[in-house]
Sequence to fold (256 residues):
Amino acid sequence: MKIKIAPNIVLLFVANAMAFAALHHQSSTAQVTGQLSGTVVDINEARVSGATVTVEGEGVTRTVATAEDGTYKTELPVGTYRIKATRTGFCPARRAPFRAVSSTSTILNFTVIPCPIVNDINIKNGQFIGETDHYKDPFKEETLSLTDLAGAPLELLVRYGSRREDQNTVEYRGAVVGYDEHAKTPTGSVRCEKYLGVSVSYDSLMIRADKVRLDPKTFRLEAEENVVVEEGEHISYAKRIEVEFRSGHPIIKTIQ
Fold:
């Protein structure tokens, strides 16, 4: 005996199957890679609560505040992202773009520095035309585009106080940063200064040193004095290092 199936039932079955496949595809592509986390501290390594960490990628934005212990945590789909940390009274802190890779946990820490807001009065042809506010950041930033062997376009971000360029290399140095420290004085604080070195970030890697020399053609980097290398949970210290960025993943050589 032959069983006849009405055409409308067949169409309904096909439509439901297509809808299920589309829903499954959407859910699989929307899966997150894991956690992005880190800690925000000030120049004396005190934890900074209430800082805003903003992560932006193609079609994705995450904004999260640091907890009482200065930590933050969020989740991200696969992609390349820009990230910054901000808080009132501090300069915005940025790192180079980083990649969120499937089934990985990325750790990106920040050090924020005191940063007053300066008010500029704009006058043109003797006439007042308005006011603008900007942060008085003692550091400048320089971005160098770099494509690794996997073809992923990333950037090297250098934060520095001063730079000197010769024929083959650029030498970067840090800056002296002033800040108020609580003290038992009539004003309740005392003015202090601290030298902060150069910071170089690339993907999840962060390098800090008193002095950095970089060849902008070969992307060969040398860092000297009070060198700190931070990548994820791993932190190491050295007097001098050399870094090669053209290999797809930075190769770091410690020189004693």
